[in-house]
């Protein structure tokens, strides 16, 4: 499974998730804001996420788009194969 990261320049969260992927031998594709996509392309996504959880990058995991904060809270253990989250 290829992991897709939609990030932005100079984003520590974006660098962190790429490092997590590398360290755990997870394949990923990184797309950068204003180079590969525009903010407007994902406006629908940000409107669906609570303001407190609106942090780049947007992560495509298991067919869903997830904000960085929600991914780190709810899916990181599953992503690393530590435990299944139900």
Quick structural summary:
This protein has 3 helices and 4 strands; from the N terminus they run E-H-E-H-E-E-H. The chain is of the alpha+beta class and 86 residues long. The longest helix has 12 residues, at 12-23.
How do the helices and strands line up, and which of them pair or pack?
Blueprint: E1 3-7, H1 12-23, E2 28-32, H2 43-48, E3 58-61, E4 64-67, H3 68-79
Q: How would you describe the overall organization of this protein?
A:
- The protein has 86 residues and is α+β, with helices and mostly antiparallel strands.
- The protein has a domain of 58 residues.
- 35% of the residues lie in helices and 21% in strands.
- The chain has three helices and four strands.
- It has a four-stranded mixed beta sheet with strand order 2-1-3-4.
- Helix 1 links the parallel strand 1 and strand 2.
- The chain is globular and about 35 Å long.
* Coarse structural class: alpha+beta
Percentage of residues in strands: 15-25%
Compute the average pLDDT: 91
Instruction: Tell me how many strands there are.
Output: 4
What would the principal axes of the Cα set say about the shape?
globular
Radius of gyration: 12 Å
**H/E series, N to C?**
EHEHEEH
How many helices? The count is: 3
Strand line-up in the sheet with most strands: 2-1-3-4
Largest sheet: 4 strands, mixed
Any low-confidence stretches, pLDDT <50, length ≥5? none
Cα-to-Cα separation, first versus last residue: 19 Å
Percent helix among the residues? Answer: 25-40%
